Amino acid sequence: MAFRLLKYITRLWDKILKGQPKVKQLPAIFSLVLYQGKAVWNAHLQLNDLIEKPNKSFDHYMPQLEYMLVDLAQKNIEAMVDDAHRQIVLHLMSAAATGKILPISQAHRKLIAAILSKDSALDLIEVLFSKY
């Protein structure tokens, strides 16, 4: 995953440089992986761990990239975010992996019903940004 993220980041930076050749600095990119699988995440979080080096003195000269992993199966979602709408999204992502979507939908049925009852995008945005 670390190498894949490096490729995504360099592609984005390359696109920026092609569109704005005089840019002096590239934007910072925060690498975040939301994992919703059943198995325990076992991929390296740092790119440097994937590179074979003769000894530690090479570490300083290797590309550095570390990403933040949020394992939805291993986290208390309510403790991660305090916003009900974000909690619902994270619960639904987690439930999609486990197939346990019914308890999630029952726990948040009032908000889900309000969302489904809206006719326009503007009404939907109003529901999503209100405290329910």
Concise account of the structure shown:
This protein is mostly helical and 132 residues long. The protein has helices spanning 2-19, 77-80, 84-98, 101-107, 109-116, 121-129, and strands spanning 32-35, 68-71.
Key attributes of the depicted protein:
single chain, 132 residues, mainly alpha, 2 domains, two-stranded parallel sheet, 6 helices, flat
Describe this structure in words.
It is a single chain. The chain is mainly alpha-helical and 132 residues long. It has 2 domains: 1-73, no CATH class; 75-132, no CATH class. Helix content is 46%, strand content 6%. The protein has 6 helices and 2 strands; from the N terminus they run H-E-E-H-H-H-H-H. The longest helix has 18 residues, at 2-19. The model has no long low-confidence stretch (mean pLDDT 80).
Largest sheet: 2 strands, parallel
What fraction of the residues are assigned to beta strands by DSSP?
A: 5-15%
How many domains make up the coordinates?
A: 2
Distance between the termini: 37 Å
Q: Give the low-confidence spans.
A: none
User: Major sheet: order of its strands?
Assistant: 1-2
Task: Please count the beta strands (DSSP E, at least 2 residues each).
Answer: 2
What Rg is obtained from the alpha carbons, in whole angstroms? Answer: 20 Å
Q: Helical residue percent?
A: 40-55%
Structural class: mainly alpha
Order of helices and strands: HEEHHHHH
What's the total helix number? 6
Shape: flat
Oligomer: single chain
Query: Mean pLDDT, as a whole number?
Result: 80
